[in-house]
Amino acid sequence: MSYDKIILFYFTGTGNALMVGQWVGEIAGENKLDFELHNISKTGLGSGVLSGSKQLIVFVSPVHGFNYPPVMLHFLRHFPAGNCDVLLMNTRAGMRIGSWVTPGLSGISFGFAALMLARKGYRIRGMIPVDMPSNWLSIHPGLSKNAVTFIHQRMKEKSCPRISKVMEGKRCFVALRELLQDLLIAPVSLGYYLVGRFIFAKTFFASRDCDNCGICISACPVKAIKLIDGRPFWTFKCESCMRCMSHCPKRAIETAHGSVILVSLIFSLLFLTVFYKLLGFWTGEIENGWVRFILESALFIPIIAVWYRIVHYLMRFRRVERMVVFSSLTKYRFWGRRYNAFDKIYKPKQ
Question: What is the pTM of this model?
């Protein structure tokens, strides 16, 4: 082995990244290497963490909007300079079709992180994507237990040899095989970072089944949930990591699909028409797509924030609450299977 110590930093919502971290720890243990596990949402960087060049630093995080989430990017941006080797890993939205696990997309996550760390003096030794079970119920139906188990097993079999290869001092850049498609979706990554994440943050709500146990508030890794008017309220700090939804013992947290569709239609068909008319020109006269995107996004974000606050208040009334709940796909069994990998992995000390 080329290293005497493995230090892993992870961010996780429903446990995928932590499970990958466990695999790294198991391989390190098999090779009698010291192993440290750090949850970036709970621990800072002590002066003694990075103490030698014979260390391999591993970063594991989910992909949100085809990039590392802002909390991981912030962590990397403030990570101290050093001269260690680095292994970058991510967990992507994997789905099962028969005996095949569909690959997710890394987008700019690896490239952007590698650039930041290389400028700090680190040597990138590997980029390994891991297609773990997708937990984004806001976008697609939840996975069955059989599908989750199958993906876990298949990805461990596929990923561990790649991790071992890096620990042996070799390079493993399997992510570069998807470089072309990752570059093609780079604009989507930018759009999600600037706009999409704020919109998704305003799609979560607690139904009347909520008993105010406070688990979602305390479990949130970025402290994005507050108690307002006696009901959990999601702020723009939300990373859409789905931990709150997966941890809720009452299954009271849903995604407001119907509410978001309604406000989007009102915004597109009514508000923008009036807005452009008041400015004296029609929507079609703005030919530059990015100019229109920036302008309309700057208008939509505050509008959805106001809409969310109004709906949050009105949900104290039973009829409104029922309308919002039953227009949410996550309410229904065919869609709303919750995913939580924490019960399948050891609990970290951090």
Answer: 0.92
